[in-house]
Amino acid sequence: MSFVKIPHPFAQNILCQYEPQDGIKPLIEPGMTPEQLLNRALQEGLNADAVIFLAHALPVREAVWWACCCAGRRQDWDEAQLDAIRAAKAWVYTPDETSRRYAESTANAATLQNGAGWVAQAVFWSGGSMTGPTDPVVPPPEYLYAQAVAGSINLTAILPDGAEADARYKLFIEMGLDIANGGNGNIGNAA
């Protein structure tokens, strides 16, 4: 089986987009598919590595949507954090410059100490310029949004104290795999 939303046939094509963590490196073999590497990482309990890999494997809108779906499972966000999640969702539906800039402002208000702020930051880093609207254009580094998506999902899974991390990771990764297979990520029970 191959993931319909992952445009890369080999895991190595995805791993070239970022610096993989030491935990996942020994699992890599030539010719592995993304699914094979993900399965190995999950068998080894490398949830955070699997999230980082899948965040880089998915196209930008699907990756951001995945982080939105994960953040949407939490019920303990404050209003600024909820605004950040809503802004990211709005960008998924209307990925324009106005939505991207609004996500930037909500990420700043929510802060980057939580998954909600990071999902809005992922939107801001999805394209356009990292400088102000009237400043010279400075595009974000390629795949920087994927690092923010992974940060969002990993923080959403482990904060505040890690007590529910295993259950959340299981659900969040299942949601990501659903999206990779063409689904909408709306599965499972609230974590």
Please supply descriptive tags for the structure shown above.
191 residues; mainly alpha; 9 helices; 57% helix; globular
In short:
With 191 residues, the chain is an all-alpha fold. It is built from nine helices and no strands.
Poorly predicted regions? none
Overall pLDDT confidence: 95
Q: Termini, distance in Å?
A: 28 Å
Please state the structural category.
Answer: mainly alpha
Number of H/I helices: 9
Give the beta-strand count.
Answer: 0
In terms of DSSP E residues, the strand content is under 5%
Supply Rg: 16 Å
Reading the helices and strands in chain order gives HHHHHHHHH
What general outline do the C-alpha atoms trace?
Answer: globular
Helix content, binned percent: 55-70%
Major sheet description? none
Structure description:
There is one protein chain. The longest helix is centred in the last third of the chain and has 16 residues, at 165-180. Helix 3 (47-57) packs across helix 4 (60-72), helix 4 runs antiparallel to helix 7 (115-124) and helix 8 packs antiparallel against helix 9 (165-180). The chain has a domain at 76-162. Helix content is 57%, strand content 0%. It is built from 9 helices and no strands. Pfam families: DUF6931 (PF22011).
